[in-house]
Amino acid sequence: MTKAQWNRIIRSAAEITKKANILVVGSQSILGWHPELEHTFIAISNELDVEPEKATQEELDDINGLLGPEGAFALSNNGAYAEGVQTKGLVRLPKNWNKRLLRVESPDLITPSNIQAVAWCIHPNDLVVSKIVALRDKDLRFCRDLIRSNIPELNKGAILQGLENIEKLYPDKERHVEKAKTFIATEFSNKRQLRIRSPEETRDI
Length: 205
Known about the structure:
Strand order of the largest sheet: 3-2-1-5-4
Largest sheet: 5 strands, mixed
Number of domains: 2
Distance between the termini: 15 Å
Low-confidence stretches: none
Mean pLDDT: 90
């Protein structure tokens, strides 16, 4: 996903719902913090997870129907699409994650009906926590690449603390958290200046 595609999805979500504030979660929220990562493997996903402010299920359905992966929007946006999500009770985030959001506002986010959309992107530490506790291979690879990107916001202590303070309870939480903590400790101890892989490089995802 490029930042231009990202911007278009935010604008479109705001235009459809007539709501300016759009919460952005999932891996591609990182482009709100670091648009320079758009041509790296970190930005390989075509999906942008969004939740308009006080979104109703009907509004989420509209986003998924009009901006989803199978429609004309994704085709015209080079495959990039939106997924309307509900963060409450579904996304595994640490306590107080909503106090660490980045506000992204620019002329590129003004909709055709002149709504100034504002994207609120989860902090990279909270992003790592939300991805890593799933223990899926693709999420572990994403977290490894993000750590190796050396962005300044990532902090080992904050991530480990976040893992201890995940709001959502789920089966095997303790086992997942312990494995995630081991992964983080290993990756930060091995951290070094490495080239971030580009999407053109072949590997299983």
